[in-house]
């Protein structure tokens, strides 16, 4: 028996993490409420990191669900301290199988359902359109993302992302002097920036907390918010203007999200109490009841507390930015929170703050550990080429240009490394990097990691793999202060209140905590979505695999040193860096997925100390400029990492021998997703010796090959690579052709 104690509360104070970084240059007008010259000022800064999930709304209405998810996480970062500045965003989408073109092999292991609202194909298209639309209109580039589709039926249970995962995150910065909110004093004014109240998002926070399909369709649709990015941009411009002043007049700030006015405004005056004048609230729908006015989740609104003497200045700036501006109440000092209609005298909300915040409800979840086992993947090494073709077609591995090409990934002029890499912009970078200002070399890096299929087999190992993948991605940017200065966001999506799932979540969270502590890194922010179950009309339940998505962020010492996976066209060597010291295992991998399995033999990191040592060693190589290109081994395994490095350029290939890796099963070598790095370096032997001196296992596995490209050019062909010679055992070490595999691909066309 395991007992879980959970404290339930409203969104609180900071909705994201802040950590200190170096100073930056602020380029802004000398004064913001009149025309003035732009000046450059130096400030100490803090970096913000945030990830928000909008799973239920995106399942029900994908466009607005994803759009308001993006808008919500941007507002969370704006509301940091006394006002902060978003720079760039991230996005993750996870759905059931889209079954395009009649379905692929692995999609036939499960049957499609009578989808409640939207098909997986519709969700992928519309949700990405919604998130892209909001970011493009607001002016925030999307610089990092991930995509996964998954279903699996076994043991009488159905797993799939029928209730989808839509995660919107991002990074930004603020001034250190404004990184903490102040407490209001009696008489300080409560201000609302943004649009009117409508019958939108009614009960959204509550409705999203149960299985989708539990309520009637009208209730669930009415709980979805609607996006208005232009309004949010107007409000942000006003907030940014006063936040860039030498003396920021904002005392406290909070966005309107789940819970509407009740959540936002109560937290603004939590330290003093406050009175909200309902007749001063903007009402777009005159039929709204008092309860609907208080609780509606109309978007793109910000609540502020400011001194009375600053009201007119903020009003002038808001009028210039066309941001609706309303003084709606004041802090009182009586520790009472009241909504009052001054025309009628009615008080629909009149509560002591201690009743709202001092006695948070407690829920007890009792659960038992339920042992789940999943069959190991079955395969035939003779079908290797077929397996490669299938893995490369998985949505989580395949080309993402249908996503990357619809978002603005360079606006602001601060993007140093965006989503795509190489001359043809095809493969994705492992991490994304932005600069803090327009002149300096310092910046912010961010990356993602998740392993939901592995977590099905072993929730603890799933957490370790998710954290590790995020770190093996961000390692390609030189992090100021090394691993210890990286911060994480952990977003938990779990089908709780089902037998065994609460216990599995407990194990997953405990493992994430233990692993992060062992690595010496913090997790200052995150979010939970613990109702990841879809309920169909006939009572059928489909559980989303328990998932944690890890977002990492850190200060970059020199943005110019960041490394991409794009293979460089020069004579060089490829090395394999083992980041885990585990065996080659196929459990929870993309390969297992394409053969209709999950498996129990899941890779992990055998030692946190070893991983930390390997992380710092790779960082040292990058800082010294010894890594020409690099890629982590994750989704799709080693073969996918190698292929993606060549997809960025059509002039080079590789001659590879994997004998040094010590695994005789070629399928395990190529498709295992155990944490590792593949690096292109000028002198592989010297770099491997340097790594081994640091206590890190590294092996030369081949050379970058330019011969075929040269032949094609000399004979009037245009080479369209990539090409490989891949040997499991070197032909120089055996005469038996069955002991080695050779795959050669030379795509050419006549000029």
Shape call: globular
Stated plainly, the CATH topology of the domain at 8-364 is called Phosphoribosyl-aminoimidazole Synthetase, Chain A, domain 2
What's the CATH H-level homologous superfamily of the domain at 8-364?
A: PurM-like C-terminal domain
Kindly, what is the distance between the CA atoms of the first and last residues, rounded to a whole number of angstroms?
Answer: 71 Å
Radius of gyration: 27 Å
Low-confidence stretches: 1-14, 740-744
Quick one: biggest sheet?
7 strands, mixed
Q: What structural class do the secondary elements suggest?
A: alpha+beta
Count the helices. How many? 21
* Percent range of helical residues: 25-40%
CATH architecture of the domain at 8-364: Alpha-Beta Complex
* CATH class wording of the domain at 8-364: Alpha Beta
Task: Report mean pLDDT, rounded to a whole number.
Answer: 89
Q: Percent of residues in beta strands?
A: 25-35%
Total strands: 32
- Describe the strand arrangement of the main beta sheet, using strand numbers: 10-12-9-13-11-14-15
Brief synopsis:
With 751 residues, the chain is of the alpha+beta class.
Tell me what you see in this structure:
With 751 residues, this protein is an alpha+beta fold. It has a domain at 8-364: Alpha-Beta Complex (Phosphoribosyl-aminoimidazole Synthetase, Chain A, domain 2). 28% of the residues lie in helices and 27% in strands. Strands 10-12-9-13-11-14-15 form a 7-stranded mixed sheet, with helices on both faces. A 6-stranded mixed sheet has the order 17-18-19-24-20-21. The longest helix is centred in the N-terminal third of the chain and has 19 residues, at 120-138. It is globular. The model is unreliable at 1-14 and 740-744 (pLDDT under 50).
């Amino acid at each position: 028996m395991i007992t879980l104690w959970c404290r339930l509360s409203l969104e609180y104070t900071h909705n994201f993490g802040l950590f200190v970084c170096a100073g930056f240059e602020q380029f802004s007008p000398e004064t913001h409420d009149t025309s003035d010259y732009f000046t450059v000022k130096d400030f100490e800064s803090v970096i913000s990191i945030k990830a928000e999930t909008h799973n239920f709304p995106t399942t029900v209405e994908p466009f607005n669900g994803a759009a308001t998810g993006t808008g919500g996480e941007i507002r969370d970062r704006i509301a940091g301290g006394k006002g902060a500045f978003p720079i760039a965003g991230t996005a993750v989408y996870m759905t059931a199988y889209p079954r395009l073109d009649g379905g692929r092999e692995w999609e036939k292991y499960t049957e499609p359902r009578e989808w409640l609202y939207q098909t997986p194909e519709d969700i992928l298209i519309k949700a990405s359109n919604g998130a892209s639309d909001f970011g493009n209109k607001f002016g925030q580039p999307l610089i990092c993302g991930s995509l996964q589709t998954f279903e699996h039926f076994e043991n009488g249970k159905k797993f799939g992302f029928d209730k989808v995962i839509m995660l919107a995150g991002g990074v930004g910065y603020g001034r250190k002097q404004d990184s903490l909110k102040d407490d209001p004093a009696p008489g300080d004014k409560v201000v609302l920036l943004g649009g009117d109240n409508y019958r939108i998002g009614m009960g959204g926070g509550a409705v999203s907390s149960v299985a989708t399909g539990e309520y009637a369709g009208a209730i669930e649709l009415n709980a979805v918010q609607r996006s208005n990015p232009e309004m949010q941009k107007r409000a942000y411009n006003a907030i940014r203007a006063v936040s860039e002043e030498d003396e920021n007049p904002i005392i406290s700030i909070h966005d309107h999200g789940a819970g509407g006015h009740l959540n936002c405004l109560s937290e603004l005056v939590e330290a003093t109490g406050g009175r909200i004048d309902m007749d001063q609230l903007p009402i777009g729908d005159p039929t709204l009841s008092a309860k609907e006015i208080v609780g509606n989740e109309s978007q793109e609104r910000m609540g502020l507390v400011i001194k009375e003497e600053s009201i007119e200045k903020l009003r002038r700036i808001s009028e210039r930015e066309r941001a609706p501006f309303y003084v709606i109440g004041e802090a009182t000092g009586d520790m009472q929170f009241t909504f009052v209609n001054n025309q009628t005298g009615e008080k629909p909300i009149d509560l002591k703050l201690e009743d709202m915040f001092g006695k948070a409800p407690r829920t007890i979840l009792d659960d038992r550990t339920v042992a789940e086992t999943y069959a190991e993947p079955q395969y035939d090494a003779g079908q290797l080429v077929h397996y490669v073709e299938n893995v490369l077609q998985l949505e989580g591995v395949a080309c993402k240009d249908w996503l990357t090409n619809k978002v603005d990934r360079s606006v602001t002029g601060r993007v140093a490394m965006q989503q795509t890499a190489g001359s043809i912009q095809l493969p994705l970078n492992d991490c994304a990097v932005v600069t803090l200002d327009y002149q300096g070399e310092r910046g912010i890096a961010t990356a993602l990691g998740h392993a939901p299929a592995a977590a099905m087999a072993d929730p603890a190992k799933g957490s370790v793999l998710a954290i590790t993948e995020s770190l093996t991605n961000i390692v390609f940017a030189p992090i100021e202060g090394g691993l210890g200065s990286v911060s994480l966001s952990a977003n938990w999506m779990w089908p709780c209140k089902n037998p065994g799932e609460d216990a599995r979540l407990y194990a997953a969270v405990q493992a994430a905590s233990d692993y992060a502590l062992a690595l010496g890194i913090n997790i200052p922010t995150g979010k939970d979505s613990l109702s990841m179950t879809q309920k169909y009309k006939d009572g059928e339940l489909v559980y989303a695999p328990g998932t944690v998505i890890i977002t990492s962020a850190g200060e970059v010492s020199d943005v110019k040193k960041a490394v991409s996976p794009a293979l460089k066209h020069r004579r060089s060597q490829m090395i394999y860096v083992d980041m885990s010291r585990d065996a080659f295992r196929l459990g929870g991998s993309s390969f297992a997925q394409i053969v209709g399995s999950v498996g129990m033999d899941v890779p992990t990191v055998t030692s946190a100390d070893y991983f930390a040592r390997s992380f710092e060693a790779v960082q040292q190589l990058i800082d010294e400029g010894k890594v020409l290109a690099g890629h982590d081994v994750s989704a799709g395994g080693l073969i996918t990492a190698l292929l993606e490095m060549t997809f960025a350029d059509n002039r080079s290939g590789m001659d590879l021998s994997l004998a040094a890796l010590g695994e005789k099963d070629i399928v395990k070598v190529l498709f295992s997703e155990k944490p590792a790095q593949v690096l292109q370096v000028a002198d592989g032997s010297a770099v491997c010796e340097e790594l081994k001196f640091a206590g890190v296992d590294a092996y030369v596995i081949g050379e970058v090959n330019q011969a075929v490209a040269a032949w094609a050019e000399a004979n009037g062909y245009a080479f369209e690579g990539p090409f490989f010679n891949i040997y499991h055992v070197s032909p120089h070490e055996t005469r038996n052709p069955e002991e080695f595999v050779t795959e050669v691909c030379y795509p050419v066309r006549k000029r």
